[in-house]
Design goal:
With 120 residues, the chain is mainly alpha-helical. The chain contains four helices and no strands. The radius of gyration is 15 Å and the shape is elongated.
């Protein structure tokens, strides 16, 4: 797990969530910068996931079989969550799209935190 990258994901994702929630309360649909922020979070998460997969392939991570399955589930969820949120927000071009992005941006740091707990 790359510690500084995890911190960057947390900070950027929570800032994006605050921004998306402000847009939601202002009754605004998600615009291009909001989607770019979600893309940036998604790219950082993908880098972290690849680093964890490489570490897992080298023998790092949990030793128990059940925890490895849980880790792989969290890896897949973390990697696919930001793109799925972007697709859903594009399908909902109203203020609710901003809420979808905000909710996803709140969930991503939880996934990353949980990945660190399981991997470590």
């Amino acid at each position: 797990m790359i510690g500084p990258l995890a911190v960057a994901i947390h900070v950027l994702s929570l800032a994006l969530a605050a921004w998306a929630f402000v847009e939601f309360f202002r009754h605004r649909a998600p615009d291009r910068p909001l989607f770019l922020g979600l893309t940036a979070v998604g790219v950082l998460v993908l880098v972290q996931v690849v680093a964890l997969v490489v570490g897992l392939a080298r023998g790092g991570g949990p030793a128990e079989g059940g925890e490895q399955v849980t880790l792989i589930g969290y890896l897949l969820t973390a990697a696919l969550f930001p793109p799925a949120a972007a697709v859903l927000a594009r399908m909902e071009p109203t203020r609710w799209g901003s809420l979808i992005i905000g909710a996803a941006a709140v969930i991503v740091p939880v996934l990353i935190l949980r990945l660190g707990q399981i991997y470590g």
